[in-house]
Amino acid sequence: MKKRLLSFLTIIAAFTFIVAGCSSSSTGSSTKDSEGGSKNEITLYTIQSTQPGFKEWLKKAEEKSGVKINWVAAPTDSDTRQQKISTILSSGDSSVDVLEINDEMATSFKNAGWLDPLQDTVLTDDILSQFPQGYMKDMLTSAKGDIIGVPGYSGYLGLWVDQKKLDEAGMKTIENKDDFVKFMKAATKDGQYGYGGSWEKTYVFNEIATFVNLFGGDYYDWTNEGSREAVKFMYDMANTWKVTPVDQLADKYEQMNQKFIDGKYGMVFMWGTGTDYREANRYGADQIHMINMPKFEKRAIFTDSWSYVLNSSSKNKEAAQKFLKYAASEEGGLNGWENFSRYPARADVASNEAVQSDIKEVYTQIQETNEINGRPMLPQTMEFINEMGTLFHNYIQDKITLDEFCTKAQEAVDKYK
Amino acid sequence: MYASKRYLIIAWLFVLPALLIRFFTTVYPIFETFRVSFFNVNLLRGINEFVGFQNYINIFQDPKMITSIKFTVIFVVGSMIGHIVLGVGLAVILNVKMAGQKVLRTIVLLPWAMPMVVIAIASKWAFNNDYGIVNDFIRWFNPGFNLDWLVHTETAWLAVIAVDLWKDVPFFAILVLAGLQFISTDMYEAAKIDGAGPIQTFFKITLPLISKNILILSIFFTMWRLTSFDIVYAMTSGGPGEDTALIAYRITTEAFTNLNTGYAASIAIVLFIVMAILSGLSMYGAKKVNY
């Protein structure tokens, strides 16, 4: 009898533990739900948490927005980050309220219905007019006309040169295509190269698109002579003139920057305001610095940003909107500049006296002289980028001809458009 | 009779929670994956339509998948040959009685204890032409040596297989070593008296007696190779081009980057079937080997 009772009790206990285990989390989340609507706190999925100024930024953002900000660090690897964010948004996960996403993700997600529109609540006309209009339209506006993100900064994929090498080549600046080629050839010696790139298949997209842009081509039209000329130019750099190493097909930005810092390259195209070079004591007018884009067929540059977006599944939308209003405000832009050296996206904030740096000079010159575009992206962004990168690798390694590259690139455009 | 039935019910009740967990974490996902594999699900485009066997047909028409299948075969075969040859060799060395044997066995296992992602990220640098330890080592003997391993298809294959071997051969060897230690020393002594040399002893005694052990280990190690994706995810991102994209990596990319869930599910089902057939054949083979 005792044994039977003991068995019975054990079974009940086992089931109770299991049921308790299953239900405790849902009770927790339902409690959270009931408080959720009025909770004045958000969870931010951020790429900035490893920055030295993050704590200071966070403190100021909490003070000024009046919202408590919990944060989750996004993975540093781009593939992993994209996969995680895709999973969060597509599964309706409400554990994150505001996320930072790049242009690739914005293009992919803006029509998927996973992000809340912000034009009525955050980006009112007076604020919106201060952001770069072309960029807002191309990257952050959905097919329905909803604006889904607040740009965290304005960046350019600019040309960075090693001034010592430029001096050694007896050149003052790189004004046009001839200068560009002349410098590449002059700086290529003793195992060093005139040009360095990050040609890993998902990264090389930036450089292909930049050269297509400079040659006056169209990334979506591979019958365009400018587009063909651009990839042929890149092929010649690696294989004909040998002014850039084929080895960089495996390099992402971390490898490219390390080589640039170590003096292996004369110039590179790179985003940002030179934080890596500063940290390596290689930044400066006599060392590594950004210059205006050279004029090939035209003078053109890409702009980018990481934008704050509001998860449609968020349970804390009011608080999230408060934070987003702050991010879109003058104070928000300056906070990003002061703590992350991120150049403010708003024109009025960028012209603020507090934003003082030599970068501002170059940025102003770029804004005055260049055609500025967002990068060419299609809804299936990463798939398209991967496919183009793979084709480029095959072309550079002589597995396919230029004609085959262009034909297949056009097929990819048609497939993903 | 009544009591035994009652105990049986009680036993089932105890097992039931585990069965339920198993059902929801294994059986249900398999059926759901199977179901989804017949749909064209693209989360980004909001498409969810029944397409029958189209996803399965696409697998064998997709050049990226064909490249993945090709490299997966090369990776699994190459890596498994390496595991068996190097693993058995290492196990034999570790079985030799010598000073510091225990320390040596522990050191040998260190690479296995490290996470694959960490090893793969380090390997990306290790195989770099300018900064890599691999070329530094080769340059001791051949000062003019220059090669960026991860840029060229064949060398990238070699590098991936080499890293996989570096990490997992020690574990394979330790498991083979366990088999070696069951072989009675009497047999070796008898062979020695009969005039057998070390090579003859190895092929006539050692190898036959551990062959079943090796075969069973090979089943598991082959399955792990078939499902591994972290090594190329962190080391090559499937490049150059798509040349090192293992099937499991392709599934991950289709499912989580491209959000082509239906297509990813169909690849997963094909891989599942291949693995089931391979393990069935191996188990059958293992039964046949009997020393």
Automatic annotation (TrEMBL), chain A:
Q: Which InterPro entries match?
A: Bact_solute-bd_prot1, SBP
Q: Which Gene3D superfamilies match?
A: Periplasmic binding protein-like II
Q: Which UniProt keywords apply?
A: Signal, Sugar transport, Transport
Task: Extract the signal peptide range.
Answer: 1-20
Q: Which domain of life is it from?
A: Bacteria
SUPFAM superfamilies registered for this protein in UniProt:
Periplasmic binding protein-like II
Q: Which protein are we looking at?
A: Multiple sugar transport system substrate-binding protein
Tell me the organism's taxonomic lineage: Bacteria, Bacillati, Bacillota, Bacilli, Bacillales
Automatic annotation (TrEMBL), chain B:
Pfam families recorded: BPD_transp_1
Cellular component GO terms, alphabetical: plasma membrane
Highest taxon of the lineage: Bacteria
**GO terms under biological process:** transmembrane transport
Residue ranges annotated as transmembrane are: 7-31, 71-94, 106-127, 156-180, 201-224, 263-286
Task: Quote the PROSITE patterns the UniProt record gives.
Answer: ABC_TM1 (PS50928)
Keywords, A to Z?
Cell membrane, Membrane, Sugar transport, Transmembrane, Transmembrane helix, Transport
Which residue numbers delimit the ABC transmembrane type-1 domain? 69-282
Topology in membrane:
Multi-pass membrane protein
Localization: Cell membrane
As for family, the record states:
Belongs to the binding-protein-dependent transport system permease family.
Name of this chain's protein? Multiple sugar transport system permease protein
Which species is listed as the source?
Mesobacillus foraminis
